[in-house]
From TrEMBL, chain B:
Residues 91-229 form the ATPase dynein-related AAA domain. Pfam families: AAA_5. This is ATPase. Coiled coil: none annotated. SUPFAM superfamilies: P-loop containing nucleoside triphosphate hydrolases (SSF52540). GO terms for molecular function: ATP binding; ATP hydrolysis activity.
């Protein structure tokens, strides 16, 4: 019986790809993923044909719906890929984080004490807290910066290229995380007072899986938690921690999400800065796998730059193929100048500004909004549990052919036509409910 | 007009020159960098791109040698400029006057090719001969067309030697002459139709052009030409600390070069001048509370440097040797008031609303009343 721990980077396409390869190689018989166990009932919908990321798991208390937590997923999230693998290979998939039934209850009792804590001053050293924050939220990025990369994903790719076998990579990540936690663990623990409880519950889930006789257990968690799951204290300690936790009734469902929202803080902490770019890296990885390897890195820059040029051309700005060639060359030379084998997003942005935008910073905002962040809205299948009001709205939207999108569009409604009149009615009704879909 | 082959004129001892070329003034730094440089150099480059970036931005070498920073500002812009030249694309430095475009161009050429003298100054009267070649008419008439009758331009010399050619004020050159650069930049050859030959560029050839977008009489680059350059826009300094650092460094080095017998001005005086320039440039006071009108000129760091310098020489020769408000004020007024009607109003308003009210600026206010 073996337990394999995969410490991933939340929403990191490089981690996701390495994880897929590792799972295919390992062929586990159960997959444990960091997430709320309260949502296990809606998990099978993930492989539904009409489910399109980005989507989020919504966990809420039905008596007080304002108390809710979102767990967003994109197609390049390692957790999404792990669950997808488990469900398509018909092996059990379980969430293993501290359930929200307990967390909501704890939050309710703690809310009065939190105010007093918030006033307390932070630790003596100035640099301590900020480093600890980034170490807790995105420890792999800290390692990337130490290696001289500004982009955590490019660093991971560099590592992947050096090693053929993904399992070695995850073993190395585990070793690095152990050292990191030994150094900054104390300072970082302040930012998640529930961390001890969460990791205890994760270990409890792992022990249950072992007791049930599964032989190859795959554990997918944030890299930060990997050391706590690799070396486990005795079961008695964890049981004592988790004893007598208060409970609250919760429900879970799937909701559509956008890349714009992904950039903000989520249930895991720090958001993703460039979901559109990560989507591009993910697709590029898939493409190079299908093609059987090859020079993926140059193709990555070339495809990105071509997309940028097409976007500029749509806005009537000159962007010829010759400029694309020059921009790619400049990005690669910049990376070489900075002693990096792979051009990252910052090098590509500087090359874009210099060659395609003639030094002007204004078109870069457009590129940032539409390509780097990306405007994408997910979709959930109609079988997803939702309140009757939501179902009715979806039916109306379908009937009136008013499709929800991530971008703002200008709609001209001729109130003499019956269809447009009904559309106007719907938008006004929503406004009465304080849902400003139409403005 | 045709440029003649430069014969070295009466040899002047270096201390007699008003301003040395960058490759002579900083010869020691360039030598040290060449010795400490172990990275790969592009063909015909004197230093590797990493060493050029250390030369421009300053730093300490492994043997403890200090390299002074030449450009104080965004590091990444300089890296983009150097990477551009390494990919043999031409570089266009763009921006408002006084943002160190010619300065950076000179130092880049000095560091990369060891020679910043292959310069074409663009004016409204620049003709094709300055960019391509001219003729020695006496020889042409006597012997007919031949290579000896040709008078080469700095561009041609840069191409044959594999060095960097500099074009200053590209946008002042008339459009039809600008377009002779298109063939040079894309095919890297200079055709000589009269002799049925061409001159091809050797490795290491590149062009650095500067242009500013503020003047009247600016000829916009044609899109074909624009596409052949990588454009880097040099901004005015982002923060007040950066601007003060720039002014302080240049004032010290210029003061030494001009042999001004005065002590280095206090930091407060420089900060005062820089604050006035920034507030008038941005149109709002530093604390953001009062809106101001901006004068017609660009109050760039270069002008701040010259204001402080002229103040220093005034105090040295006519004053008591230390820089006071009365020494600064004439240079300050001269820099701000370029248009006698509009800027006068702007300056008066600034004096009455900001200078009069500020603590410790009473001496400046009194000195300005003495002038107006």
């Amino acid at each position: 019986m073996s337990v394999h721990i995969f410490g991933i980077r939340h929403h990191g396409p490089g981690s996701a790809r390495s994880l897929c390869q590792a799972l295919t190689q390992l062929q586990p018989d159960i997959v444990l993923v960091e997430g709320p166990p309260d949502a296990e009932s809606v998990l099978p919908l993930l492989v539904h044909a009409e489910m399109r990321p980005p989507v989020a798991l919504l966990v809420y208390t039905p008596d007080n719906p304002q108390q809710a937590v979102y767990y967003p997923f994109a197609v390049f999230s390692p957790e999404w890929q792990a669950i997808h693998y488990g469900l398509t290979h018909q092996i059990p998939v379980r969430f293993m984080d501290l359930p929200q039934t307990h967390r909501f209850a704890i939050a309710a009792t703690d809310s009065k004490e939190d105010e007093a804590e918030a006033i307390a001053t932070p630790g003596p050293s100035e640099s301590g807290p900020t480093e600890a924050i980034s170490a807790y939220h995105d420890p792999l990025r800290l390692l990337a910066e130490a290696a001289g990369y500004s982009d955590g994903e490019r660093w991971w790719e560099h590592l992947v290229e050096q090693r053929q076998d993904s399992t070695e990579l995850f073993a190395a990540v585990l070793a690095a995380m152990t050292v990191l936690r030994a150094e900054v663990g104390q300072a970082a623990a302040r930012f998640d007072p529930l961390e001890g409880l969460r990791e205890a519950y994760m270990r409890k889930t792992m022990r249950e899986a072992e007791k049930q006789g599964f032989q190859k257990i795959a554990v997918v968690c944030g890299a930060w938690h990997a050391p706590a799951l690799a070396t486990r204290p005795p079961a008695k300690e964890d049981a004592a921690l988790l004893k007598g936790l208060a409970k609250q009734k919760v429900e879970a469902t799937w909701v559509p999400w956008t890349y714009g929202r992904l950039t903000m803080s989520s249930g895991y902490g720090a958001g993703v800065e460039s979901p559109g770019w990560y989507q591009h890296l993910w697709e590029q990885g898939k493409r190079s796998e299908r093609a059987g390897g090859g020079d993926a890195t140059t193709h990555c820059s070339i495809r990105w730059m071509t997309q940028v040029a097409r976007l500029l051309r749509k806005q009537d700005l000159d962007a010829s193929s010759a400029s694309v060639i020059e921009a790619v060359r400049l990005a690669e030379t910049l990376a070489a100048l900075r002693d990096r084998p792979l051009p990252g997003l910052s090098e590509l942005n500087e090359a874009t500004q210099t060659v395609l935008c003639f030094g002007d910073a204004l078109p870069m905002q457009l590129i940032h909004q539409q390509l780097i962040v990306g405007e994408r809205l997910g979709r959930v299948p109609p079988e997803t549990p939702m309140i009757p009001l939501q179902q009715d709205l979806q039916r109306q939207q379908k009937r009136l052919r008013l499709k929800p999108e991530a971008t703002e569009t200008l709609l001209n409604l001729d109130l003499r036509k019956p269809l447009d009149l009904e559309r106007s009615h719907l938008l006004h009704r929503l406004m009465l409910l304080y849902v400003p879909w139409g403005r | 007009m045709a440029t003649t082959k430069t014969k070295s004129a009466t040899p002047q001892s270096p201390s007699q020159l008003l301003r040395e070329h960058a490759e002579h003034q900083f010869a020691q730094e360039l030598d040290e960098l060449a010795k400490a440089d172990t990275r790969q150099r592009p063909p015909n480059w004197k230093l590797s791109p990493w060493a050029v970036s250390v030369y421009l931005l300053g730093g300490t070498l492994e043997n403890g040698f200090e390299v002074t920073p030449k450009y104080i500002g965004n590091r990444r812009l300089m890296e983009v400029a150097i990477a551009t030249l390494a990919t043999d694309r031409a570089l266009l430095l763009y921006g408002v006057p006084g943002t160190a475009k010619s300065w950076v161009s000179e130092h880049l050429a000095a560091a990369i090719a060891g020679d910043s003298t292959l310069l074409i100054q663009g004016t409204a009267g620049t003709s094709e001969e300055a960019i391509r070649y001219g003729w020695n008419y006496a020889r042409l008439l006597a012997e007919g067309p031949s290579m000896e009758a040709l008078v080469d331009s700095p561009m041609m010399r840069a191409m044959t030697a594999g060095k960097i050619a500099r074009v200053e004020e590209l946008t002042r050159i008339p459009s039809d002459v600008q377009d002779t650069l298109i063939t040079v930049l894309s095919e890297k050859t200079l055709p000589i139709p009269e002799l049925n030959t061409e001159v091809q560029a050797n490795k290491g050839f590149n062009v650095i052009a500067t242009a500013n977008n503020r003047d009247r009489g600016v000829n916009e680059l044609s899109s074909a030409l624009k596409r052949r350059f990588n454009t880097v826009i040099l901004p005015v300094p982002g923060s007040i600390e950066e601007e003060v650092r720039i002014v302080q460094q240049r004032v010290e080095s210029l003061g030494r070069a001009l042999e001004l017998p005065v002590e280095v001005p206090a930091l407060e005086e420089i900060q005062r001048v820089v604050t006035i320039f920034r507030e008038l440039r941005d149109g709002v006071t530093i604390d953001g509370k009062t809106k101001l009108k901006s004068p017609t000129g660009t109050l760039s760091p270069a002008e701040a440097i010259s204001v402080v310098n002229s103040g220093m020489s005034l105090s040295a020769h006519f004053g008591d040797g230390s820089l006071t408000a009365s020494d600064l004020i004439s240079g300050l007024v001269g820099a701000v008031v370029k248009d006698p009607v509009q800027d006068q109003v702007v300056w008066k308003e600034y004096l009455e609303t900001v200078v009069k009210e500020r603590d410790g600026w009473k001496d400046l206010y009194r000195a300005s009343r003495a002038i107006l």
